């Protein structure tokens, strides 16, 4: 990326970024489902984002291309459904931002659809949001981080891999 | 098949005919008329319920969360956090820079806390006397109330050996000449399992869930669960009624049914954030615009470390060793001090807390059994540059805390990280990971020190958490300084009290549960005497 292009994109992110997360959410809800759902049920596009992002966040723990990917998506969905509705809406807005092509390109810096995005591109996207100067994108990184690693390691099937014996059997 | 060998006092009480109503199952609106309505069943509400019911008053307890008991406590984070915590244990400050752990089930935070029980430090009380006109809050005047609650809740210094997670704090600190001491805990017959944060599966923890609330229910108190106190309705200088909404069984949305409560007296014990939230929604008198302000958190930062040997930080009493060394190095109103403790490590919480992703993160998680962590709790609220945050209402009326972290607090965070890392190396750590997005793993104290001094300190770069929300309904007899009097009565309202940690004008400088127990024991005893005209009962 040339310096001029990089600077232009950077300015655009600065101007657009703050508003985009909120507006992308409302556009998304308008386009996808005029009857705004009260509870966030993951759709195909959101699952595609998670199927791409989770193996990168969990590199070394989750086996890409295995049943692990579906398993972690199910667990993430379960965790989201127990969050307050206003938080579910924020998460819905975040996935709207990631699934709509223009915001995916502008804010996540990903030229390709999630299904064909490369691992290193996704890692670069996560790292840029992790340290982003726009607080809202940083909080979005933290949301992805916590939503992926928390449900993954909360599940008994992963405990042996980290040397955790789990609670005593007699009372659990 | 239930093979659980532990007797369950809640199930036994329900079978004996306790009056407990799960509002999520109501098929019609309901009205109640009682002597005292208590909103919240945590440390403040629980103690108040037992004392007022002993005094012969008809009590209604209102709890937003569910009634769960030892048969439900399976020591699994995926189940415990959504069932037992506010916002599924993912409550955050307005800017999402601080994660807040607060309980939401019968027993409130006492059902899920780690049992550390400290009296309010004397220097904190002296500060309240000097700066908030709380003359009655002398250490010797409060001592009998702490005595009473320590007896009631079996508070004693932990007599067994600390687990390795705690002992590493003790050994590392000792090498550096930093004194540590043993933590008193409110447990009776503790199995030393390590799962206090997910509800005690053996009923050893003397939480409100197994002590004061069963006592009140056995005396005829009524408990409404899945019920959100929405609004206190004022008429003149009195609360006329309380409007509540029933919540769905999953705890997420109003069910559509309402509950109206009329009482002679109302006690707000929803905890800091929810108590000021209810009072703000109700437009409670606030002539000096201080309701919701001075909400403090004991902001917590942590440092993880890897050792060559197993630490098994998930096993054993979670907190048994602490150090107040860095609370005592400066004046209470000087540079911010911090208390050192350790957290229990369980897979969900520690995986979310550790920064970074990919190989870096999974490599650390693979060595979970060898991980140790120290936490530093910063004593906020004692300095003009540490006045806490403000509880506000969102559009839908739910409360949110705006808590800006000032440079004064960041300075303490930097010093606390340095302290924790130095202790971990002194205890024999091989690699130390101060939890910061730009920090690395460090293999020597000198390299870690250099890095920590150079790190940027700003929101969302350092992981900051809190399990001790206090303040927001400041207590002071000076109406310019506080909305509640030194006797717990809300200023300008004749039949409204606040009994919980939201009263505290500053943070405590120690885990706050025993401060809430002792202080509300005194306030509830005074209230019992005023409402009945007879001497208050003794627990």
Q: What structural category arises from helix and sheet content of chain A? A: mainly alpha
The average pLDDT value of chain A, as a whole number, equals 86
Biggest sheet of chain B, open or closed, and with what strands and sense? 8 strands, mixed
Q: Overall pLDDT of chain B, averaged?
A: 97
The CATH topology of chain B corresponds to FAD/NAD(P)-binding domain
- The gross shape of chain A turns out to be globular
Low-confidence runs of chain A = 1-15, 33-37
**What amount of the residues of chain B lies in strands?**
15-25%
Q: Kindly, what is the distance between the CA atoms of the first and last residues of chain B, rounded to a whole number of angstroms?
A: 38 Å
Report the portion of residues of chain A in β strands.
Answer: under 5%
Number of helices of chain B: 13
CATH architectural label of chain B: 3-Layer(bba) Sandwich
Low-confidence stretches of chain B: none
Largest interface: A-B, 46 and 49 residues
How helical, in percent, are the residues of chain B? 25-40%
Using DSSP, what is the number of strands of chain B?
21
* Quaternary assembly: heterodimer
Helical residue percent of chain A?
55-70%
CATH superfamily of chain B: FAD/NAD(P)-binding domain
The total domain count of chain B is 1
CATH class category of chain B: Alpha Beta
Organism (chain A): Noviherbaspirillum saxi
Protein name (chain A): Tat (Twin-arginine translocation) pathway signal sequence
Cofactor (chain B): FAD
GO molecular function (chain B): flavin adenine dinucleotide binding; oxidoreductase activity, acting on CH-OH group of donors
Kindly describe this structure:
The complex is a heterodimer of chains A (172) and B (539). Chain A has helices at residues 3-32, 44-57, 67-80, 85-99, 101-108, 119-130, 135-154. Chain A has 172 residues and is mostly helical. Chain A has a domain at 44-158. In chain A, helix 6 crosses helix 7 (135-154). Mean pLDDT of chain A is 86; it is low at 1-15 and 33-37. Chain B is built from 13 helices and 21 strands. In chain B, helix 2 (43-54) packs parallel to helix 13. The two termini of chain B are 38 Å apart. The chains are: A mainly alpha (172), B alpha/beta (539). At the A-B interface, helix 3, helix 4, helix 6 and helix 7 of A face helix 3, helix 9 and helix 10 of B.
